[in-house]
């Protein structure tokens, strides 16, 4: 074993430029980090990410204001996704060695009548909307109707998701979760929907509606063991912080820590870093995606990156010499791009340890699974994934 504790931070949706297969997804020209940094025109300061080598990943087409540095502290590169889709589930499962190759159910024209009927019968409520729409727009448009009639707002997006928005003043959190659980059960083999997402919100009218952090994702259970299971079976600790737990339906995660926001996610990760364990702490920071990417908010996304960078500084200070920090993303969600959906992009890869004297390039990884393979390699476990470990590359250039 080389590193005792591995921290993996997934900056949800922080892509670093259109992937080579972006055209298949109609995402040519998408560039989450590129468009945010050029919107901010050098005003966006990301000192910690820059020092690690974020700008070095894009030496060929530099990010405005996030430039390559001469001696990056981390090993840097980018990863290509091989999963069939570009949702969080595809990205996270692939990272942990299980690319999603079997296509999931997409419903761009709304869910079939029998499914809607089943939801209505189970809940005793009428279903409204039933089409792809943004989650903030849908409550602004239909939230008042929901308050009047008690109807369920069911909607989807470009991903394999069935989302149910409910004002908790009339549909309690318990009831919403119960309905989502039922929908989860009936959409596993038939419909094969990736995630059923409970979207609670509060507010008396349109001017006040606000979604809460009680969002819950009921994801398909990974059909095979992932790196998380392999670690646990070998006796290593697996700690999930934030949405990570939902994305794996808890499978392979021994300790599950709920978070309220990106900031809280960093607080909880720092707290974990102050404990002694041997294994993996796997954190997802979802605000980038949910609050700024899908909302196509370049300004807010930039601020969230700066806020993250500051908290990253704190995490770096809490790392020990035999820790490894892996920073990456699960897909893109370019706030400067058309539509409101995820974008098929490369994701950044930064690998840092206080034990490194400096880093260098890890190149373009052919699959996110290289990350999981590296973790297995680190803990001297057999690589049962299609990923290729870059652990030995992390021994390059070191003074030791
Ligand atoms: O518009 P909201 O409700 O944020 O939903 C978005 O969040 C889902 C999960 O990331 C995506 O599939 C997209 O639909
Ligand atoms: Mn995501
Ligand atoms: Mn999303």
From TrEMBL:
<feature type="domain" description="Metalloenzyme">
    <location>
        <begin position="4"/>
        <end position="382"/>
    </location>
</feature>
<protein>
    <recommendedName>
        <fullName>Phosphopentomutase</fullName>
        <ecNumber>5.4.2.7</ecNumber>
    </recommendedName>
</protein>
<dbReference type="InterPro" id="IPR010045">
    <property type="entry name" value="DeoB"/>
</dbReference>
<dbReference type="Pfam" id="PF01676">
    <property type="entry name" value="Metalloenzyme"/>
</dbReference>
<comment type="similarity">
    <text>Belongs to the phosphopentomutase family.</text>
</comment>
<feature type="binding site">
    <location>
        <position position="294"/>
    </location>
    <ligand>
        <name>Mn(2+) 2</name>
    </ligand>
</feature>
<dbReference type="InterPro" id="IPR017850">
    <property type="entry name" value="Alkaline_phosphatase_core_sf"/>
</dbReference>
<dbReference type="GO" id="GO:0009117">
    <property type="term" value="P:nucleotide metabolic process"/>
</dbReference>
<comment type="function">
    <text>Isomerase that catalyzes the conversion of deoxy-ribose 1-phosphate (dRib-1-P) and ribose 1-phosphate (Rib-1-P) to deoxy-ribose 5-phosphate (dRib-5-P) and ribose 5-phosphate (Rib-5-P), respectively.</text>
</comment>
<dbReference type="GO" id="GO:0000287">
    <property type="term" value="F:magnesium ion binding"/>
</dbReference>
<feature type="binding site">
    <location>
        <position position="342"/>
    </location>
    <ligand>
        <name>Mn(2+) 2</name>
    </ligand>
</feature>
<dbReference type="GO" id="GO:0008973">
    <property type="term" value="F:phosphopentomutase activity"/>
</dbReference>
<dbReference type="InterPro" id="IPR006124">
    <property type="entry name" value="Metalloenzyme"/>
</dbReference>
<feature type="binding site">
    <location>
        <position position="289"/>
    </location>
    <ligand>
        <name>Mn(2+) 2</name>
    </ligand>
</feature>
<feature type="binding site">
    <location>
        <position position="331"/>
    </location>
    <ligand>
        <name>Mn(2+) 1</name>
    </ligand>
</feature>
<dbReference type="InterPro" id="IPR024052">
    <property type="entry name" value="Phosphopentomutase_DeoB_cap_sf"/>
</dbReference>
<dbReference type="GO" id="GO:0005829">
    <property type="term" value="C:cytosol"/>
</dbReference>
<keyword id="KW-0464">Manganese</keyword>
<feature type="binding site">
    <location>
        <position position="330"/>
    </location>
    <ligand>
        <name>Mn(2+) 1</name>
    </ligand>
</feature>
<keyword id="KW-0963">Cytoplasm</keyword>
<dbReference type="GO" id="GO:0030145">
    <property type="term" value="F:manganese ion binding"/>
</dbReference>
<keyword id="KW-0479">Metal-binding</keyword>
<feature type="binding site">
    <location>
        <position position="12"/>
    </location>
    <ligand>
        <name>Mn(2+) 1</name>
    </ligand>
</feature>
<dbReference type="GO" id="GO:0006018">
    <property type="term" value="P:2-deoxyribose 1-phosphate catabolic process"/>
</dbReference>
<keyword id="KW-0413">Isomerase</keyword>
<comment type="pathway">
    <text>Carbohydrate degradation; 2-deoxy-D-ribose 1-phosphate degradation; D-glyceraldehyde 3-phosphate and acetaldehyde from 2-deoxy-alpha-D-ribose 1-phosphate: step 1/2.</text>
</comment>
<dbReference type="GO" id="GO:0043094">
    <property type="term" value="P:metabolic compound salvage"/>
</dbReference>
